[in-house]
Amino acid sequence: MQNISCLYQLVQFAGCDYCIFDVGRRVVEIDKTTFEQFENGQLAYPYPIQSHAKFALVYWPMGQTDNPYIWFLNLPLDEESQIVPGSRNHFVAIIQEPLGSDFAQQSDEQQQLPDNPYIKLPEQNKVALVNARIKDKFKREFSSLALACLDFLQQEDKNNWQNLTVQGWADVLVQLADPKIQNLIQNEFWLLPIELQNQLIPILEHCELPRALVNISIRQLEKEQNPAQQLAILRLLAGHSEQTKVQTWLTSQIAESKPATEMLDLLMILGARCWTALKDPLLLTVYLEKIAELPANNFEALFRDAIALPSLRRPILALMQNPSALPKTRVAVSNMIKASYGTTH
Known about the structure:
Blueprint: H1 7-13, E1 16-22, E2 28-30, H2 32-39, E3 52-61, E4 69-76, H3 85-99, H4 124-137, H5 144-153, H6 166-173, H7 179-188, H8 194-204, H9 211-223, H10 227-236, H11 244-254, H12 264-272, H13 281-291, H14 296-308, H15 310-321, H16 327-344
Antiparallel strand pairs: 1-2, 1-3, 3-4
Helix pairs in contact: 4-6, 5-6, 6-8, 8-10, 9-10, 11-13, 14-16
């Protein structure tokens, strides 16, 4: 068998097509060119989290889209979010040894992967969203689970929702480009029982929302006084956090004199889900200075996650090189380096 080290080569050699979805931050598709450049060491992984690339690799034999297979992978990254070839090659070897090159033609039982440290199932909402995006990609008919959710949205009575499933909702909500579904969601979402809203937000945070729903939600965010509800609305707007009004709201919240430990949840959601808002230089500065007030382990986790993102790495390094910017962050980074130097030497 020819010498194969890349995942994309492995599935192509098995006669398969494939697609990739990030599942670490928001469930979004990564185009094949980007993924192949990442695997070839030419590009950083676009959405690193906790020093890992967490993604779903979906593959199917050419022309046979009725039963695709999914590997949920968790690959370590280096400090610049580049692939660690040894780990990826190890996983490919684990696949090749028992399954051979024609694994895509085998039955489900034969395709069972050996135990390995690289396969890791994400939370239920993300698994449901990957499944929903695959169905959407292959233009599948709505399942009975999805039709039940759609039917519920069209009913006057909005109290009988407990039997609706996460998978049904995910199947519906990835279809927000459909005008009918778009209208239903933007007209009904803020009228739903709050418990149902809170179940749908961890799905909707991965979706592109209709503009009207974004605008209504931003207004809700600006007037909301309950901290838990503020965080829920912020998650809902995760895919739209580059909007100026969202960035302005975040900046004013984080710039408050409240102790950083009291806003840890907000800082964590901003870092993990709404990181695109940090492209705003003022918000990025305020964020870094606020996380510098946190206990050392919290600061290190959030700072490393931010600087690992290719879209933020250069802006953060530029700020760090400006001697009059980020006084608290400099001290916190210096302490972090000293502490890690002390533990490794």
